[in-house]
From TrEMBL, chain A:
Pfam family membership, one: NDUF_B8
Keywords: Membrane, Transmembrane, Transmembrane helix, Ubiquinone
Any one GO cellular component localisation term in the record: mitochondrion
Species of the source: Mizuhopecten yessoensis (Japanese scallop)
Name this protein carries in UniProt: NADH dehydrogenase [ubiquinone] 1 beta subcomplex subunit 8, mitochondrial
Transmembrane parts of this sequence: 84-104
Domain of life: Eukaryota
Record's keyword annotation contains Membrane: yes
Automatic annotation (TrEMBL), chain B:
Main location class: mitochondrion
Pfam families, sorted: NDUF_B7 (PF05676)
Keywords assigned: Disulfide bond, Electron transport, Membrane, Mitochondrion, Mitochondrion inner membrane, Respiratory chain, Transport, Ubiquinone
Similarity comment: Belongs to the complex I NDUFB7 subunit family.
Cellular localization per UniProt: Mitochondrion inner membrane; Mitochondrion intermembrane space
GO cellular component, one term: mitochondrial inner membrane
Membrane-related topology note: Peripheral membrane protein
Coiled coil: none
PANTHER family given in the database record: NADH DEHYDROGENASE [UBIQUINONE] 1 BETA SUBCOMPLEX SUBUNIT 7 (PTHR20900:SF0), NADH:UBIQUINONE OXIDOREDUCTASE B18-LIKE SUBUNIT (PTHR20900)
Function: Accessory subunit of the mitochondrial membrane respiratory chain NADH dehydrogenase (Complex I), that is believed not to be involved in catalysis. Complex I functions in the transfer of electrons from NADH to the respiratory chain. The immediate electron acceptor for the enzyme is believed to be ubiquinone.
The name this protein goes by in its record: NADH dehydrogenase [ubiquinone] 1 beta subcomplex subunit 7
Keyword Transcription regulation (UniProt): no
Amino acid sequence: MTDKEKERVSKKYGLIKDDYKPRPYSGDYPDLKGVGAWDRDNMEVWDYPETKKNFMEPGPYYDRDVEMQARYSESFQYASRARLGSQLIFVVIMIGFLILNDHLGQRNYFPMMPKQKPYDESGKKIVNYSMESA
Amino acid sequence: MGLQISTGFGRWFEPELYPYEKENPTFDPNYGFSNGRKEREPPISYEQMVSAKVPEEFRDYCAHYYIDFKKCLLKSVPFGYRCNHEKHHFEECQQNEMISRMKEYEREKRLLQRAHRKKLQGAVDNVEVLED
């Protein structure tokens, strides 16, 4: 792209020449960073107060619908990697505790023989012995 | 609590020395008693248990106390506290039953460990160990 062409194109999109940088795969549209309505000044007098924008203002190429929302913010962080790690450690510890608990619970038991019953299910007598000698 | 932990860990590390708690005793019940042991007499007949609709888990050697307790409860609705006497008898019987079960386990465990010791000394199987 020649210098003259660059000047023409940047004028077309309302930018100064040094700020212009073409966006890849998008013709001559400039590569601009978006600023959401949440981050813009409330007290300024905008041409369009709903989206806090001025007439013919250059904006990013993408998603008009998202950008139109009043609380859309480019600087908001939805999740962070460090937090994900701590959550993962928490889950691993909890599941490990459950497995360990189950394992120990299977190992421990109260030292008793099964209950002695006088009759079986069909009503037949079962011979059991007490601890006294005859 | 301590028994539970010690037998649990003992069975974990030396499973052949500790009996399994869900199976009946395997050794001869009269071994070691010169005249044998006393047989336990059922308190009431099976037909009585059935006609009194005793649940399966209470058809044991405390069934008569259970029936007395339930009879009293029916008679004194809604003043269940009037049957505390019968309830006490029933629970005492259940506790004694539990103690005898623990004694049975202890006897089984000691015989098992004795058999194991004898086996290490050269005897072949449990029958020979008992008749030594």
